[in-house]
Amino acid sequence: MSLPREAYEALAGVVGERYISAEEYILAGNRVKTPEVPFTYHSADAIVLPENTAQVQEIVRICNRYNICFVPLVSGVSAEAFANRAGTILIQLSRMNKIVEINEIDRYAVVEPGVRHVQLYPELRRRGLSYTAAAVGPGGSVLANFTSSSGDHHNQHNASRSNRYLLGVEMVLPDGAIVRTGSLASGAGWFCPDGPGPGLRGIMKGYFGNHGQLGIITRIAIGLNPCNGTAEIESEGISPFHKVRMPDPCSRVYVFNFSHIHDVRDAMLRIGEAEIAATVMKYFYLPATLMMTNSANEFWEKWPKYKEILKMPLVVHLAPRSEEELAYEEKILFEIVEETHGRRIPREIESWWDDHMDFFMIVSRLQSVLRLGGGWMPNKLAAESVSHICEIGRSIGDFIHDFTDTGKLFDAPENYQIIPMEYGHFAHIELLIMWDRTNPAAGKGVGEFRMRSRNNDIENHYHAETPGSLNASMMQIGPLYCNSHEWLRRIKESFDPSNIANPLM
Amino acid sequence: MDKLKKHEYSMDSCNHCGQCKWILPPKMSGWDFAEVCPIHHYHQFDSYSGQGLLNISKEVLTGRLKIGEGLEKVLYSCTMCGACDVNCKNVRDIEVIETIQALRELCVREGEIPAHLREMDQRLEQSGNIYGKSADDSFAWLPEDYADDENADTILFVGCSAYTHPEIALAAIKIMRAGGVKFKLLREERCCGGSLWRGGLEESAGRIIRENMYLFREHGVKRIITACGECFGAFRAIYPRFGEMDIEVKHISQIALELLRDGKIGLKSAEKPMKVTYHDPCMLGRLSETYVHWEGEIKPFGLHMPEKQWRRGFGGVYSEPRELINAIDGVELVEMPRNREDAYCCAYHSRETDPDMSAFAAAERRREAMSTGAEMIVSCCPFCIEALGDSETECCDLCVLLAAHLEEGGGV
């Protein structure tokens, strides 16, 4: 154990012997590299499982005392949730798992880090409420969803991305001080994220961290949306053949295929202008096929057909509150699609969506991208106007074929999704690349591809990519965003002069 | 190590998504009763989970972790319930439980065998049953007037639990007699071998399994009926690993439902209205799908050549026990949130190796059962019955419940 004995004992004094370990077989559970990352992590020196904010505060103070780096995590699904360098402990927040409050009147919920989507989502539905769940699967942390990811999600067309719903945080800073933001700071509760009190939301919420982290968020409040689905989720069947139907008649899913991204753009903008539909997304065709199949072999059987039928699919979910509204929305939708040259896909494929329409279900089915064995990597992840984002999507074809045609990447050049938000005021793009991780040459091509993709964005002045979590990528992308990397570095140094809060590579 | 190596693809394909630890979304019911992995639920460290054990397996394979340095503590805390496996396979083509099994077998080959398994192995060697009871006592519970149908090619395999829970075997006999099923008992039957095999003692388990298979052939057995979920799962999911298993295997609930549908047995009303909940035993449910050996190549992007028949938990026995319970007038079945393929394990099999976790898991399952408003837990496995029943919680085997409600005319 490289952790000083005194430090270990001090940490054990905080959480109790049961909730700390430096045993190799315990550390192993959090150090093996996952298929999508190109490097091997260090081993943490210990893992501690605090129970509350006071314990987190004590742990952070001990880390300062002994100059130990710390990385907070919950589920460990993120590539940032590992020890990046020697002399690091992991602070796993899974025991801090209370739903502190659900306020049905003011529509907000307060949760601790360990609360998972699969726990909060049904509690809210029961109360006629919902929230914006990003694509990380049922065991993902709700708090991490709102504070540590891009926050884009499938049904943001008539809503917005997750970080817009963050009403306030309680945070242990790298020196152990506790900060509460927005209205919470003045004891007025969780209702408002911006004052009176410090408005840290902008700097705290880097998509992938600000040269690391600025502390450990121990509680958040999130704004909630109304949910017009059933209170209980009715499912039938045994895994993997579950079906979950949304209530008829006010739930319809239509899937259209388009020939050109410009037509998709026009359809998106017009649907937004008409302010109809709950969900609109130009979906990735590779995950769409994977979600509809139950093994890699079945995928390979269907892919030749599906990649044509779903080449540029626009998925539209209508969820109005009455049959009259439904008839109206359908009429408008069909007119728009006809005028923008879309075609409905065959019903036998489209109907799959009827049985899985709850978007949380779709989020969890999206995990099936790993059915092909990894590697995979999301790219771009930026948000801009619908037109700009669609242009970025179009330009992918200018360079990706050098990689897909040569076997360096999976041959799916159109595998990007564009999801408008706030009725088409903005849109998000994600390009999902996959490669054969058993082929070292393909693995090397990933870095080359990312560089080409980034250079293409820089040359064309595209706002296509959020600064990544690695310092190197921040240095390259930062100048495109008003030298954001410099500002972020200064903020990080101000909050964390010892650089112990999840220092990145 | 070769067997573990075969699962390296699975180890490398895990991305820590956590689906092995949490209930599948179609089954989610709220904050409570959302964890499906008992060891992770209790210990909270990721090593205690399907994902963690995949990581550990990878490090054993690459030599970073050595067997004998404490990892057995995690490995044998695992109840081998398979919830991680089924949940992972909802969206992946990964063998989680098979990898854990291969790691256990490696541990055993390297001499790291938990004491209680070593002792069980010895008892089985000496007596043929896990309790070490004398063979003379093996069928002492049979009524004097019981007689086999000598020419029957169907057997009732009573299993080791007949020593501790003879009422289950007696109830099964009563049901089959009432329905006119021709069957016999094999007095020479030995333990099914499931507990040993799942403990990683492949060689010892194989010896017993082959002895039983030889016995079945000698007696011309064409169909095995068992009232024990553990034995049922062993015959379907373990025996085919040791040779051709061309014998039909049925659980008593499947037989009883057939008899009921054919009008060969009837069920009378309960004396008073009662709510019960049903606990799915792992080896009757998600782990009982027939094992089909696969040998082949995994091509790029997951293509398995030849095509693999995946065991995803779909083919377990789930509906028959429920239909039978519902067929008793006055008995209302209420479901626990974690049911069928997502049932929460009773953790009986970790009693010796991780008693605190095992007690926690059983208490958790009792709490879930009682949260439904049920007055009784019904199950189909003697180990589950032992784990879940306590002074405040009535737990009853399905056979016993059915036998108590058989209409007149049936019986031994």
What can you tell me about this protein's structure?
The complex is a heterodimer of chains A (505) and B (412). Chain A has 505 residues and is an alpha+beta fold. Helices cover 33% and strands 18% of the residues of chain A. Chain A is built from 17 helices and 20 strands. Chain B has 412 residues and is an alpha/beta fold. Chain B is built from 18 helices and nine strands. In chain B, strands 7-4-8-9 form a four-stranded parallel β-sheet, with helices on both faces. A three-stranded parallel β-sheet of chain B has the order 1-2-3. Chains A and B meet through helix 2, helix 4, strand 13, helix 9 and helix 12 of A and helix 2, helix 4 and helix 5 of B.
Topology at a glance:
The complex is a heterodimer of chains A (505) and B (412).
Chain A: H1 5-15, E1 20-21, H2 24-27, E2 46-48, H3 53-66, E3 69-73, E4 88-92, E5 99-103, E6 108-111, H4 117-125, E7 129-130, H5 142-147, E8 166-172, E9 178-180, H6 201-204, E10 216-223, E11 225-226, E12 235-236, E13 243-244, E14 252-257, H7 261-274, E15 279-282, H8 285-291, H9 296-309, E16 313-318, H10 323-339, E17 343-344, H11 347-354, H12 359-365, E18 376-384, H13 386-395, H14 401-404, E19 416-421, E20 426-434, H15 440-459, H16 471-477, H17 484-495
Parallel strand pairs in A: 2-4, 3-4
Antiparallel strand pairs in A: 1-2, 5-6, 6-10, 7-11, 8-9, 8-10, 12-13, 14-16, 14-17, 15-16, 18-20, 19-20
Helix pairs in contact in A: 1-3, 7-10, 7-13, 8-9
Chain B: H1 2-5, H2 8-13, H3 38-43, H4 50-62, H5 71-75, H6 83-88, H7 96-109, H8 115-127, E1 154-157, H9 161-164, H10 166-178, H11 194-198, H12 202-218, E2 223-226, H13 229-238, E3 248-251, H14 252-261, E4 274-278, E5 297-298, E6 304-305, H15 319-327, E7 331-333, H16 355-371, E8 376-379, H17 382-388, E9 394-397, H18 398-404
Parallel strand pairs in B: 1-2, 2-3, 4-7, 4-8, 8-9
Antiparallel strand pairs in B: 5-6
Helix pairs in contact in B: 4-7, 10-18, 14-15
